[in-house]
């Protein structure tokens, strides 16, 4: 929603507003507001007006705007479009259960409508502090125009509570009042709010306010086509992607593709600027897109390779430090190793989190290199002889660079000794990395340096 809000605001020269809608006090989660702010900033979708930045219609947190809503409620009560309801939660639950058993409509039965507090108190299921409900007329508008879906018909609504017993408005009243007060002319939200739109249309009509345009976006789905749940799917928390090593531009591009699939032949890699330039609500796919991270992985790899080696190195150093992949008290020299290794692992990276596993061997102590069983098993019977010849060459090769190392070893092991390249270099790879597969061998040797390489060769040689 934020992505499309921001794109539409940029395209039309409007303002993208972040408003914190916190009137449901039972569902507040500590830290969630900051997580919203952090997610938008990380994705490059920074709002133009918000609680942090302020703006002409501050405050932008609904719990700080209670004085704005009460006069509207009083106006609706005075005009007969709303009424007090003293029904207890127990009475409401019993009513719905009874109606459901009879297969009747479970909407509120309007027991309190037209009653005074004293009259209602004489009946069962009374509570001292009332809520305020809308009085939905029989001719409530059920059809409205949607920017994405065209003409939409919603179900007939219930007598919606608009002011709760705690004095806080519900979403339905607060969002209409705030959208009017803040001059919001395009409301972008999820398709689950389609059924609530008739209530909002009525409020705009009763209050004599101009209607905004509505765009109801499709809901994202898991690979099993179930709705993504914040409680069950960690990916519903956007900062999870940062923690996993995804780039913000890749995730943003992925979200663009999900709800706005490219036509055949279109470029899948698309900047936000290009997305804005080609924006049209009619292109939004109304079928709930499946959130499959395989496409995201591919996009992330592409964006990683578009980074300069220097920029990628900076991001890897920051990520590895922040995620503590190198421990709580890393040697400062490791950052330079990461920078030197970045060019050789860049073609293989899918996420930033992949880097440490590939280069950790470069900062291990020479006598602590763990030799994997699969790596040791691939060594031939002549591995000891090959390691001896390798050590002799590397002890004198100058300069100790990847190109010089490769040429010298080819001359001795491949040309002079007649060993096939794969078998000639495998012992050195196992000695230096402990693995059957590692980043480019000769570049790794250059980063390690002569002393470390020779020490690791000696360490493996003693075990053969």
What would you note in describing this structure?
With 464 residues, the chain is mainly alpha-helical. The protein has four domains: 1-81 and 135-217, Rossmann fold (3-Layer(aba) Sandwich), CATH 3.40.50; 234-302, Glutamyl-trna Synthetase, Domain 2 (Glutamyl-tRNA Synthetase, domain 2), CATH 1.10.1160.10; 307-362; 373-462, Arc Repressor Mutant, subunit A (Orthogonal Bundle), CATH 1.10.10. It has helices at residues 2-12, 32-42, 66-78, 89-101, 117-121, 171-181, 197-207, 239-244, 248-259, 272-277, 293-306, 309-322, 334-345, 355-359, 373-377, 383-394, 402-416, 421-433, 441-448, 450-461; strands spanning 82-87, 126-134, 143-146, 150-153, 161-163, 186-190, 213-217. Helix 7 links the parallel strand 6 (186-190) and strand 7 (213-217). The protein is elongated and about 105 Å long.
List keywords for this structure.
464 residues; mainly alpha; Rossmann fold; Glutamyl-tRNA Synthetase, domain 2; 4 domains; three-stranded antiparallel β-sheet; two-stranded antiparallel ribbon; 20 helices
What is the CATH C-level name of the largest domain? Answer: Alpha Beta
- How many strand units? 7
CATH topology of the largest domain: Rossmann fold
Q: In terms of structural class, how would the helical and strand content be classed?
A: mainly alpha
In which order are the strands of the major sheet placed?
1-2-5
> If you compute it from the alpha carbons, what radius of gyration comes out, rounded to the nearest whole angstrom?
32 Å
Subcellular location: Cytoplasm
Organism: Propionibacterium freudenreichii
EC number: 6.1.1.17
Domain Aminoacyl-tRNA synthetase class I anticodon-binding: 313-458
């Amino acid at each position: 929603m934020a992505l499309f809000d921001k794109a539409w605001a940029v395209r039309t020269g409007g303002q993208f507003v972040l408003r914190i809608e916190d009137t449901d006090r039972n569902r507040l989660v500590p830290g969630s507001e900051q997580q919203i702010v952090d997610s938008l900033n990380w994705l490059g979708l920074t709002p133009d007006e918000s609680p942090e930045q302020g703006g002409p219609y501050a405050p932008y947190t609904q719990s700080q705007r209670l004085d704005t809503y009460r006069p509207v409620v009083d106006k609706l009560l005075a005009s007969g479009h709303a009424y007090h309801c003293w029904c207890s939660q127990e009475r409401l639950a019993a009513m719905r259960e009874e109606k459901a058993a009879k297969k009747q409509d479970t909407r509120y039965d309007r027991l309190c409508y037209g009653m005074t507090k004293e009259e209602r108190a004489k009946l069962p299921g009374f509570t001292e502090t009332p809520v305020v409900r809308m009085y939905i007329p029989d001719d409530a508008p059920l059809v409205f125009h949607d920017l994405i879906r065209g003409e939409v018909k919603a179900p007939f609504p219930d007598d919606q509570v608009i002011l709760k017993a705690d004095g806080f408005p519900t979403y339905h009243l607060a969002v209409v009042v705030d959208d009017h007060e803040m001059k919001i002319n395009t409301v972008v939200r999820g398709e689950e709010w389609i059924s609530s739109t008739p209530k909002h249309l009525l409020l705009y009509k009763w209050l004599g306010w101009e209607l905004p345009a509505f765009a109801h976006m499709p809901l994202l789905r898991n690979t099993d086509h179930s709705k993504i749940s914040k409680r069950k799917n960690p990916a519903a928390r956007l900062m999870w992607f940062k923690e996993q090593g995804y780039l913000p531009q890749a995730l943003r591009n992925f979200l663009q593709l999900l709800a706005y699939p490219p036509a055949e032949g279109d470029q899948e890699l698309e900047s936000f600027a290009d997305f804005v330039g080609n924006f049209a609500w009619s292109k939004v796919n109304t079928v709930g897109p499946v959130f499959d991270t395989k496409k995201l992985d591919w996009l992330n790899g592409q964006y990683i390779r578009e980074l300069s080696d220097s920029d990628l190195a900076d991001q890897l150093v920051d990520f590895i430090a922040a995620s503590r992949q190198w421990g709580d008290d890393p040697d400062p020299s490791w950052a330079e190793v990461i920078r030197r290794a970045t060019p050789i692992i860049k073609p293989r990276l899918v996420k930033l989190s992949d880097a440490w596993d590939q280069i950790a061997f470069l900062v291990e102590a020479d006598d602590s290199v763990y030799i994997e069983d699969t790596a040791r098993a691939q060594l031939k019977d002549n591995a000891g002889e090959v390691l001896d010849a390798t050590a002799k060459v590397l002890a004198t090769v100058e300069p100790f660079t990847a190109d010089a190392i490769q040429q010298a070893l080819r001359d001795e092991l491949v040309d002079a000794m007649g060993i096939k390249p794969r078998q000639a270099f495998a012992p050195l790879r196992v000695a230096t990395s402990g693995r059957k597969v590692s980043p480019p061998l000769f570049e790794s040797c250059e980063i390690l340096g002569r002393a470390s390489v020779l020490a690791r060769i000696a360490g493996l040689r003693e075990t053969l």
